[in-house]
Write a structure and sequence with these properties.
This protein is mainly alpha-helical and 190 residues long. Helices cover 66% and strands 0% of the residues. It has helices at residues 4-16, 23-35, 43-51, 59-76, 98-119, 128-142, 151-185. The radius of gyration is 17 Å and the shape is globular.
Amino acid sequence: MLKNSRYSSLNQLLQQAEIGINPAELHGFLTGLICGNVADEQWQSLLFKFTNDDQAYPATLMESSESLFQDTQNLLRNPLSFNFRLFLPNNETTCEDVFAQADALSGWINHFLLGLGLMQKDLDKQTGEVGEGLDDLQEIAKLSYDEDEDKQELADAVEEVIDYISATVLLFYVHFCAKYNSIQDNPTLH
């Protein structure tokens, strides 16, 4: 499970390195790459290219990023456990931080779609549950809120959306990675 103290530490490392993303966006990007079936040796070069102008991360930040990648990949590899959660500023939405949570959620989705799109070039051709999930994520990322809204209602809505997105991510992982792995594991001989 990804802890809030880990979020704060990673946020500090990103800021010190002057990387222009937050931990939620980093996690969204990495999750998108994983769900898109990124090759183990490819994810780091994509990370550097799209988050740091093709420059490597400092060693401590890279270690934390590798750990986040591995933890996320391990959680997704066992989709029936339903342990995968979005890495947001606070996994327990409270009324006090609901606006930060909603903003982080939007950033997570946008970076997830970027990572997934880099790996799966024909996302616009997806149909069925996967196509609907992609459409839903694009719409959710556009949602806004009014700071005068009832905070408890917004917190409840954000929590429901987080649960939906977590399930949708598992659907994408199974769809894109299982399809690839079945081709790799069962070659056809002629």
